[in-house]
C-alpha cells in the first residue's frame, strides 16, 4: 500500500512537501517515483529515486524539486519549491517495477 500526503493550495513561488509512505514490502529494495497528471493531460514522470539513492528529474522541475527517501520511515519525499501554476496536478507515487500506485494528492498553485 502507498499513501501520499502533503498536497494543498499554494501561491506561485511557494513550497510544498509531499510524502509517500509504504507498507507491506521491503521499502529499501525498491525505486520510487513521483508522477503527476494535470486535467486533460497524460500522467508524466516528475522525479524518481532508486534503492541506491540515484535520482532523476523531469526537465520542467530540475532545480526546483528534490526527491529524497527515509527508509527507516518507509517514506519518500518530494520537496517542491518555486512552484508555478503549471505544477498544478494530482501527484502520485509509484513503486517502480510493480503496479502499486498511491491514491494521489492534489496540488494547486495559484497565480
Output the keywords.
111 residues; mainly beta; 6-stranded mixed sheet; 0% helix
Task: Give a description of the structure.
The protein is mainly beta and 111 residues long. The model has no long low-confidence stretch (mean pLDDT 96). It is built from no helices and 10 strands. The N and C termini lie far apart (34 Å). Strand 5 and strand 6 (55-57) form a beta hairpin. The chain is globular, with a radius of gyration of 13 Å. Strands 2-10-9-4-5-6 form a 6-stranded mixed β-sheet, with no helix packed on it.
Sheet-strand content, in percent, reads: over 45%
Shape: globular
Name the helix and strand elements from N-terminus to C-terminus, one letter apiece: EEEEEEEEEE
Strand order of the largest sheet: 2-10-9-4-5-6
Main sheet?
6 strands, mixed
Mean pLDDT: 96
Head-to-tail CA distance between termini:
34 Å
**Unreliable stretches:** none
Question: What is the percent of helical residues?
Answer: under 10%
Question: What is the C-alpha radius of gyration, as a whole number of Å?
Answer: 13 Å
In total, the number of strands is: 10
Number of helices: 0
Class per helix and strand makeup: mainly beta
Question: Short summary of the structure?
Answer:
This protein is mainly β. The protein contains no helices and ten strands. The protein has strands spanning 2-5, 8-11, 16-22, 32-37, 44-49, 55-57, 65-70, 75-80, 89-95, 105-110.
Topology (elements, then pairings):
Layout (H helix, E strand, L loop, with lengths): L1 E4 L2 E4 L4 E7 L9 E6 L6 E6 L5 E3 L7 E6 L4 E6 L8 E7 L9 E6 L1
Parallel strand pairs: 2-10
Antiparallel strand pairs: 1-3, 3-8, 4-5, 4-9, 5-6, 7-8, 9-10
